[in-house]
Amino acid sequence: MNNAFKALSDPTRRRVLELLKQGPLSAGELADQFEVSKSTMSAHFAILREAGLVASQKHGKSVVYHLQISVLEDALLGFARLFGWEMTATPNATAVPDEKKETGI
């Protein structure tokens, strides 16, 4: 969970995840969205991969990145549990509070 939150702490990496929410993109397509060097983007991609938030596949000379939403969801659910919040995952990969647990009903 710590690796996921470390990865999420940077606005560039959060933006990469937002872009990948629309579907897989190559490293070049992602890098074109930012005004930083390709080596800087490569470092961001490595942190996201290490955290398990993205997966990559080599296609010829390109590397294509995919969002791994289940890892992000697990990290967020684990974080919520630290505060005693009971959360349940919904089929569309989002988390919603369990109202009965929060309200005591």
Secondary structure: elements and pairs:
Blueprint: H1 2-8, H2 11-20, E1 25-26, H3 27-31, H4 38-50, E2 54-59, E3 62-67, H5 69-82, E4 87-89, E5 95-97, H6 99-103
Antiparallel strand pairs: 1-3, 2-3, 4-5
Helix pairs in contact: 1-4
Distance between the termini: 30 Å
User: What is the β-strand count?
Assistant: 5
Rounded to an integer, what's the Rg over CA atoms? 16 Å
Shape: elongated
Class by helix and strand content? alpha+beta
Q: Helix count?
A: 6
Order of helices and strands: HHEHHEEHEEH
Uncertain regions: pLDDT < 50 for 5+ in a row?
A: 93-105
Largest sheet: 3 strands, antiparallel
Strand order of the largest sheet: 1-3-2
Mean pLDDT: 83
Query: Percent of residues in beta strands?
Result: 15-25%
Question: How helical, in percent, are the residues?
Answer: 40-55%
Keywords:
two-stranded antiparallel sheet; alpha+beta; disordered C terminus; single chain; 105 residues; 3-stranded antiparallel β-sheet
Characterization of this structure:
It is a single chain. By secondary structure, the chain is an alpha+beta fold. It has helices spanning 2-8, 11-20, 27-31, 38-50, 69-82, 99-103, and strands at 25-26, 54-59, 62-67, 87-89, 95-97. Helix 1 packs antiparallel against helix 4 (38-50). The longest helix is centred in the C-terminal third of the chain and has 14 residues, at 69-82. It is elongated and about 45 Å long. The two termini are 30 Å apart.
